[in-house]
Design brief:
This protein has about 230 residues and is an alpha/beta fold. It has helices at about 30-40, 50-55, 65-75, 95-100, 115-125, 140-145, 160-165, and strands at about 5-10, 45-50, 80-85, 105-110, 125-130, 150-155, 175-180, 205-210, 220-225. Helix 5 (about 115-125) links the parallel strand 4 and strand 5 (about 125-130).
Length: about 230
């Protein structure tokens, strides 16, 4: 068993999540940020990949006090569980991901992370699961999250994590905010990275909802039509 898993991503018209500088360029509008905050409030956990975790040290908390109060009134914690997936967590510092807001913290890593760092993270009350493999086993990680009580999992990138979850057939839904701008740049990150797929193995999507924002941005919601992708597609 795994949680209902959905990816939320903001991109430009040309599919970029950031500029070639990779400094976290703003893409979402004010209205879209409110939408994303509601999605977080409805989730049991929010997951990010290693590059996002180490480079951005995200807070991953619900910004709206009213939404946090609503969660508590429903018998939940004020914020969803923060989940980090990182091959080597040695670069994770004692920052916002570990400390900002009242939230349970779960980290999936591999034995490339030093034992000292694992001990440090656990001393900061993070629940650390070490996979003895080259990369975190995402199928195993999602099954563990389900065992921890996560029924609805929100994924906020980056592109490599998005791609691997899609490739493995672990994603149920994809929501994309398309901002009315273009970044360009061959090295600028896209919504799905990784090794890529050939045309015959493309992940098919079905549009289930759409919304046009006053700023010209568009929100598209897709269901993922195929449960599994060939594990050899890399």
């Amino acid at each position: 068993m795994k949680p209902f898993t959905f990816i939320n991503v903001a991109v430009t018209v040309d599919g970029k999540m950031d500029t070639y500088e990779r400094r976290g360029a703003a893409i979402s509008s004010a209205a879209d940020k409110i939408r994303v905050d509601k999605l977080r409030a409805e989730a049991d956990a929010v997951m990010v990949g290693g590059k996002t975790l180490l480079d951005e040290d995200p807070k991953l908390t619900v910004k709206s006090e009213a939404l946090r109060v609503e969660r508590v009134e429903r018998g939940l914690t004020a914020n969803p569980i923060k989940v980090g997936v990182v091959t080597n967590a040695d670069g994770l510092t004692d920052g916002d991901f570990l400390n900002f807001g009242l939230a349970r913290v779960v980290i999936f890593t591999t034995d490339k992370t030093s034992k000292a760092q694992v001990e440090f993270l656990r001393s900061r009350n993070a629940e650390v699961y070490v996979h003895h493999s080259e990369r975190v086993d995402l199928t195993k990680a999602l099954h563990m999250l389900h065992e921890l009580g996560v029924k609805r999992l929100m994924v906020e990138g980056g592109g490599t994590l998005n791609f691997e979850l899609l490739r493995l057939g672990l994603v149920d839904e994809l929501t994309m905010y398309i901002a009315p701008m273009i970044f360009g740049g061959e090295s600028a990150p896209t919504a799905a990275a990784g090794a890529g797929l050939i045309r015959s193995e493309a992940v098919p999507l079905k549009l289930v909802a759409s919304e046009v924002h006053p700023d010209g941005g568009v929100v598209l919601k897709y269901s993922v039509e195929r449960d599994t992708i060939s594990p050899n597609a890399r």
